[in-house]
Amino acid sequence: MYEGVKFPFQFGELWREGLKTKDGKWALRVQSDKAEKLFWKQYIEKLPNHYKPPEHVRKLQSVILSYLWESDDVLEIGPGWGNYTFTIAEKVKNLTCVDISKDILNYIDTQAQQRGMDNIQLIQNKWEEFSNLDQYDVVVGMNCFYRMKDIEKALLAMNQHAKRLCLVGVISGPERPHVIEMYRKFGYSEKLMRRDYIHILNILYQLGIAASCKLVNIQKKYIYANVDELWKDNIGTLRVDEKDKSKILDLIKGYCYEDHGKWVYPHSCKAAIIYWDPVEFSD
Fold first, then answer.
1. Which of 21, 66, 87, 275 matches a 20 to 30 Å C-alpha distance to 245?
2. Buried-exposed string 165-182: b where 16+ CB fall within 10 A, e elsewhere
């Protein structure tokens, strides 16, 4: 167990504050498992049958695979629509996926069958309540902690279930540039990031786990069929003053280019891969 600097505050509390809305309430998907399940049910229904991961995901897939061995039994937390699942399963001996959403797991199962994969096992469970006593060579969690209030428990569970390695992946900043400009020029701060990989790294530190971190440069491309989609995705439910709307739309367009009638917003940012050897804690 690593003994480091004793801070006068807990990074886990900062994480939990970042899960709340501006008025100090828990975001709906944070407080409601039902809302989370409904979100993924609706999301999966919109996915094409043959989904192809974007370029930045393919880049991260190769990074993740570099940590895995062919003989590994791997546990993946919150596989989502399988951005990393099938690539991992192609390399390792066995892969077990844990997710709260039955629809997610059904989608993963269907895709696995279509790909002829028979080394993927599925468990429907909320990770914070996962009670399986099995251990796995590697435990992986890619962008899966976005609604976990008890982040310490979630990370310690990864440590507990891993025999060789724990891997956490987080898409990080910087923000989409228009968000920063909206804040600096117009004072809109609601869409600024409130949680990032540095919280997780420091939470681990305070738990006595000295994790390593690899930052990977990536570029995400957001593609919109029209200006309405561009506005909706980049502003969402944010209440914008009528006098600012046209200026903000022009600001967003300034970071985009048109391609065959569509608006493309390229965003250069980073992904953090946090990893550590499992730590044995004394009672």
1. 21
2. bbbbbbbbeeebebbebb
Question: The dihedral of CA 11, 174, 39, 86: what is its sign?
Answer: negative
Q: Residue 151: helix, strand or coil by DSSP? A: helix
Tell whether the model's pLDDT for residue 177 goes beyond 90.
yes
212: β partners? 275
Provide, rounded to the nearest whole percent, the portion of the chain with pLDDT above 70: 99
Q: Give the model's pLDDT for residue 208.
A: 95
How many other CB atoms are there within 10 angstroms of residue 192's CB atom?
A: 12
Statement: the pTM of the whole predicted model exceeds 0.85: yes
Residue 283 has pLDDT above 70, yes or no: no
The reply to whether omega before 174 is within 30° of 0 (cis) is yes
The beta strands (E) that lie in the chain are given as 73-77, 94-99, 120-124, 136-142, 162-171, 212-224, 257-259, 262-276
Pairing outcome for strands 136-142 and 162-171: parallel
Do 278 and 2 touch, CB atoms closer than 8 A?
A: no
Q: Are 187 and 194 in contact (CB under 8 A)?
A: no
CB 2 within 8 A of CB 205: yes
Region class of 264: left (phi > 0), else alpha (psi between -120 and 50), else beta: beta
* Spatial distance between the Cα atoms of 57 and 22, rounded to a whole number of angstroms: 31
Asked if 18 and 195 touch (Cβ cutoff 8 Å), the reply is yes
Average confidence (pLDDT) over 129-158: 94
Contacts of 228 (CB under 8 A, 6+ apart): none
